[in-house]
Amino acid sequence: MRFQLETEKDMARLRQAALLPKEAPPSHGHGPRAQPTLPTLEVVYTLEEPDKQCPKCGGALNEMKGCYEDAEEVDVVERRFVLRRHKRQKYRCSCDGCVETALGPPKLQPGGRYSVDFAVEVAAAKYLDHLPLKRQVRVMAREGLVVDSQTLWSQIDALAQLLAPAHEALHAALLTREILGGEKLAGLIESTFGFTRLSNEVLFTPVPDLVPRTANHGLGKAQLIDCLFTWHRW
Length: 234
Fold this sequence. Notes:
By secondary structure, this protein is mainly α. The protein is built from six helices and two strands, in the order αββααααα. Among the domains are: about 115-175, no CATH class; about 175-234, no CATH class. The protein is elongated and about 95 Å long.
């Protein structure tokens, strides 16, 4: 009798344990990483018509407004190359004395076939992601675009010419400093090479600049680094 009572108690405990929520296993790692800069695209999934029926009573399942089970997924939107056909509308006066054509998109080169966005994409891949032009050609071929490295280089060159005024303005602004890039250089040399910290007078010696790089410094007056990483300096 005692064995039977203990068995009934054990069964009651098992039934009670089955009703309790299971403890989640301990998590490892840092968990989902926040992605505050990614754009969010919402996709709503609904039941198909045959599934909108209660399996118990056969009644219709009604939509619960605003009630969803949410989950996040990091996805990639495929890059696509397209052949965009620009149709510039023409206009004329009834007197036949004037014909006007709407302006098209801006071009890096007159009559160029590649967009400004395309040139920026190529330049960013080469100079930010260190992706050679030949490799870009192979990647683009897999995506359906037939192009060669010379064409990609021409786009980068045209982009560089367009941005040349900004580059020259930044260069001129940098040359107004007494010492170019000297703010943290002494500490960098000490930490990298183990040399004793040197003064700016030693690091930055006015040297003859055989190729003058500035218009506001005379020859030999520019405060430039003189053979900084050559052995005779040390």
